[in-house]
Please model this.
Amino acid sequence: MAELALWVDVDAPPEVVFDAFTDWVGQREWMTGTDVRVIVGDGRSAGSRILARTGVGPLGFDDPMEITAWEPLRRVQVHHLGRVVRGDGVFEVEELPNGRSRFHWVEWLEIPLGSLGLVGFTFARPLLARGILPSLRKFARWAEQRAVD
Model:
């Protein structure tokens, strides 16, 4: 397993941040090139399944996930069920002083090719982070706007 852990501070209280990141369909507003929809259940409980489609037009991949833990206002854990992305992820909200929050995005990914794959991931991790961080910053602005509305 390889870990990718990122976070962003948000000028909004934890309940707003939690509601924002669990707005699966709304994820298209901040996650570049990704559309998400609920395919089983209500999307707000363990056992629900969501499907993220990442790419442009016909070029892309599906990332089906099952919600394995749902802790309102705090944490959601998912298990990736696809062919491209496999492993587990967690989204957490940490309360900060003055009505602020920190949004954590952590993935524990199954990397193919054993040790060779893990070495490759060591070099790919910074590129993945650079690709995801702009979306997390956009998420922070989007959640902050939701706090104002």
